[in-house]
């Protein structure tokens, strides 16, 4: 006979509490203290061997550190099989798809599932705790497992937070040297991009617009980023960013405004292809009479870019897109760059494998190519 629902709920809560007490009792005598991104002081074991990564992008950072083999389970986004996937860290680690699940994506953890994992994680690493998912203090209390919070940051004004996240995570998993290598890698490539284009006079910089940018899902061509990082790195004149605030990361621009701007070069975030053949940015560029008036459309100056907003920011794809954009806008400054090879060099360093061909194939081979505007 099935047990009443309220009894089952009380039993699960009791088991969770008992498990937490047992885990607390098992904390080793040799421990150390980590200060996380929220300023919380968290006691963790000296020698951490097993972790889980909760929240958007958290497992990506662990992969950058080469410590992905330390995870004992994944959130449910990692086991999904879809037509499109623009996460290089996941493509480089297909074993994630067969691992145990500890909760739902975007940080919606399941304490009861976590307590059933074998081996048990010694630390839970967690991103985006102020905007979504399980409260870190409550999760720590329910599981008895230390929760270390990270600020995912970005490659713009929040680059210091991104670097801090790498350093905090590295301190937990013992990959401090690798964290400094990754930080130096981003700094050197961003400096290289900026140095190649810094001396180009303002009046010689083509005007640009990117449409179809993903933001918690796919969008049509009016979806853009006023402070699109690859444009910033190569000093492109992003028309959507003129007069926009430095923190305005996403915007929907009126189609009439795009027509009025008539940018010299257009880019298409291929995330928009998720909307299907009869919708999305590519379909709109091909069929909408308003877009047909744009000079860049008429001259076939529309280029496909890798999606980078895919379970938060794929930092390697930001760099890869920037090198391709630089090659399109200023070919004489990027004569030594072959964009696909550059992308694979970036991915090999960050995630351990050259995954550009696999990812590009999912998006119809349109990445780093002129987009065909006839059907």
Question: Overview of this structure, please?
Answer:
By secondary structure, the protein is of the alpha/beta class. Helices cover 39% and strands 14% of the residues. The protein is built from 15 helices and 14 strands. The strands form 5 sheets. The chain has a 4-stranded parallel sheet with strand order 11-9-13-14, with helices on one face. A hairpin with a 3-residue loop joins strand 5 (101-104) and strand 6 (108-109). The chain is globular, with a radius of gyration of 23 Å. The model is unreliable at 18-28 (pLDDT under 50). InterPro entries: ABC_Transporter_SBP (IPR050902), ABC_transptr_periplasmic_BD (IPR002491). Residues 50-333 form the Fe/B12 periplasmic-binding domain.
Order of helices and strands: HEEEHEHEEHEHEHHEEHEEHEHHHEHHH
Q: In the CATH classification, which architecture of the largest domain applies?
A: 3-Layer(aba) Sandwich
SS-based class: alpha/beta
How many whole angstroms does the radius of gyration measure?
23 Å
How many beta strands in the DSSP annotation?
Answer: 14
User: In the CATH scheme, what's the topology name of the largest domain?
Assistant: Rossmann fold
CATH superfamily of the largest domain: Nitrogenase molybdenum iron protein domain
Strand fraction: 5-15%
Anisotropy-based shape: globular
Unreliable segments (pLDDT under 50, ≥5 consecutive)? 18-28
Described by strand count, sense and barrel closure, the largest sheet is: 4 strands, parallel
Instruction: Look at the structure and give the mean pLDDT.
Output: 91
Assign the CATH class of the largest domain: Alpha Beta
Number of helices: 15
Helical proportion, percent range: 25-40%
* Strand line-up of the largest beta sheet: 11-9-13-14
Total number of distinct structural domains: 2
What is the CA–CA distance across the termini?
61 Å
């Amino acid at each position: 006979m099935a047990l009443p629902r309220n009894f089952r709920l009380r039993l699960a809560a009791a088991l969770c509490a008992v498990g937490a007490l047992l885990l607390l009792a098992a904390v080793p005598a040799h421990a150390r203290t980590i200060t996380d991104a929220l300023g919380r002081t968290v006691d963790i074991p000296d020698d951490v061997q097993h972790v889980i990564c909760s929240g958007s992008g958290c497992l990506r950072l662990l992969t950058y550190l080469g410590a992905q083999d330390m995870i004992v389970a994944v959130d449910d986004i990692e086991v999904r099989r879809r037509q499109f996937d623009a996460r290089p860290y996941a493509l480089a680690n297909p074993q994630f798809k067969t691992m145990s699940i500890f909760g739902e994506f975007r940080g919606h953890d399941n304490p009861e599932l976590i307590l059933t994992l074998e081996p048990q994680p010694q630390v839970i690493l967690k991103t985006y705790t102020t905007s979504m998912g399980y409260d870190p203090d409550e999760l720590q209390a329910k599981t008895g497992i230390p929760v270390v919070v990270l600020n995912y940051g970005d490659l713009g004004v929040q680059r210091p937070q991104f670097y801090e996240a790498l350093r905090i995570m590295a301190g937990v998993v013992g990959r401090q040297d690798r964290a400094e290598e990754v930080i130096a890698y981003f700094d050197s490539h961003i400096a290289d991009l900026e140095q190649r284009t810094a001396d180009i006079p303002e009046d010689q910089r083509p005007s640009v617009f990117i449409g179809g940018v993903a933001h918690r899902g796919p969008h049509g061509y009016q979806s853009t980023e006023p402070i699109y990082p690859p444009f910033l790195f190569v000093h492109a004149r992003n028309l959507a960013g003129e007069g926009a605030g430095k923190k305005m990361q996403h915007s929907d621009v009126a189609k009439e405004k795009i027509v009025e701007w008539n940018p010299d070069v257009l880019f298409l975030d291929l995330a928009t292809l998720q909307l299907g053949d009869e919708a999305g940015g590519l379909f709109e560029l091909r069929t909408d009479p308003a877009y047909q008036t744009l000079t860049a459309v008429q001259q076939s100056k529309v280029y496909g870019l890798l999606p980078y907003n895919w379970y938060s920011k794929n930092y390697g794809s930001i760099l890869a897109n920037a090198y391709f954009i630089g090659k399109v806008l200023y070919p004489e400054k990027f004569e030594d760059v072959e964009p696909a090879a550059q992308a694979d060099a970036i991915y090999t360093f960050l995630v351990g494998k050259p995954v550009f061909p696999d990812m590009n194939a999912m998006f119809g081979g349109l990445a780093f190519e002129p987009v065909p505007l006839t059907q």
